[in-house]
Known about the structure:
The structure holds two protein chains of two kinds.
Chain A: H1 2-41, H2 50-61, H3 64-97, H4 99-114, H5 121-128, H6 132-156, H7 160-168, H8 173-210, H9 216-225, H10 229-265
Helix pairs in contact in A: 2-10, 3-4, 3-6, 3-8, 3-9, 4-6, 5-6, 6-8, 8-9, 8-10, 9-10
Chain B: H1 2-28, H2 39-52, H3 56-86, H4 88-101, H5 110-117, H6 121-145, H7 149-157, H8 162-199, H9 204-214, H10 218-252
Helix pairs in contact in B: 2-10, 3-4, 3-6, 3-8, 3-9, 5-6, 6-8, 8-9, 8-10, 9-10
Amino acid sequence: MNELSLENEQATIAVRRRFRAFDAIVLTLVMLALWQAIGSWTQGVAVSPPLLTLVYLFGLLRTWMFWDHAAATLAAFCLAFMLSALIGLALGLIFGVRRFAGEVAEPILAGFYTIPKVTLYPVVLLLFGLGMSAKVAFGVMHGLVPVTLFTLGAVRNLPPVLVRTARVLRLSPGRTMRWVLVPACLPDIVNGLRISFSLSLLGVLIGEMFSSQRGLGFLLVNGMAQNNVPLSTAIVTVIVAIAIAANTLMLRAGRRFARQPDAAVR
Amino acid sequence: MRWRHAALIVRTAILASLIVLLELGCRAGFIDSLTVIPPSEMIASMVDQIRSGELNASIATTFSTIFIAFLLAVGLGTIIGALIHRWPRLRDVADPLLASYYSVPTFIFYPLLVALLGLGKAPLVVLGILSAAPAVVISTLSGLDGVAPVLMKLSRVHRLTPAQTLSWIVLPAALPHLFTGFKLALSYALIGVIAGEFILSGTGLGYAISFAYQSFENRTMYGAMLFVLLVAVTANGILYVWEGRLARRRSRG
């Protein structure tokens, strides 16, 4: 009886999985059809159709110029994301543990999150000069707040029993952090990191689009300025693919972490 | 409550002292006036520009664009959200799209939109909708999901027509979520439109700032910037307070 129900359950999971794969294919096809429709409707003036773009992209991937620009973006983005993650985690932990500091800081951070930060880009340029550091700083401005707020929220909403257990076991602050705080907050932290990832990418790309001579954002604007439609469409495709892939991976990681520490607590 | 009050005072004190420090640093010459101008100068520049009417045209363009984008995003987002809620199969297909939508920097479509629709209001409106509508869709979905089944049963017991069900049962129950969506939509539309103007446009506040930057008119740039930030902060603040009030009234029953 028991085995049978288990088998049934596995069957439904398999069916659901097959459905999900089917849905993903449908979604991809719909998006491709939409892309093709826009491409042929505008006769390639604004968007080049999928097949043409892919062919162009493969050609582009073989040029040295593309990798040079991609490396510039990647370097700026990695630095921006790492800085956002590290500073955000530290700030989030401090503001989460020190409640009053958190109460003071949270509205400031949330307010900063909702303002149009693009308008501040000239200030960043004036402070850091044209080049890599301005892009990185702008990426951090976008990416810092989500990690901080998610970490802060996670630490603040921690079940008090966990903290008391740590105290009973006389764990040092460092060990409390390593064995209690971080594992319990991990799902939220991963969620914050996921949002920070896409926002620091956005920050770096906007920086490149506005005033830069290198990077994918520059290449995109440049392609448009030179009326090189396949180039700008190909760049957009690359960025969208990377963003969606990273987001999906982190979404999965977050879900996995959300299941595990719960089991550990029990 | 008292604790909150203290936090508010400390927060205000910190922000105020930062501004004073900046002012002193600029006046004393620690900070180059080519980089940052004193806050008092920023305010003076903003007031000058508003008084002289320099900014009037930009203000009108930008806010009308934001308003159109916001209205369309709310309308489209609610309708799409309701449709997706209605058909579970559609939802299965749309869910992964919604989950990863905001990971894609919508911005990179802007050059394509400009090529497609020309420079002007249209690409900015579309950019605003692209950044705001999905937030409305998501919050509509969570709002409709949150309507308790017992309420729907109640409407069936009373034999309400679909329109009555909508206005008396569904909307009041889903309102807090919808409101959150509208709030997000406004700030996303604002960010999208101003950022679009900033990068590639010939009109509007974003353009005014980037033009002033490119012609080294720091005073004008900081004045316009301060204006945009004040408007954004005020708008978000009003919606935040309003939302809190709605939530409190709801919890009182």
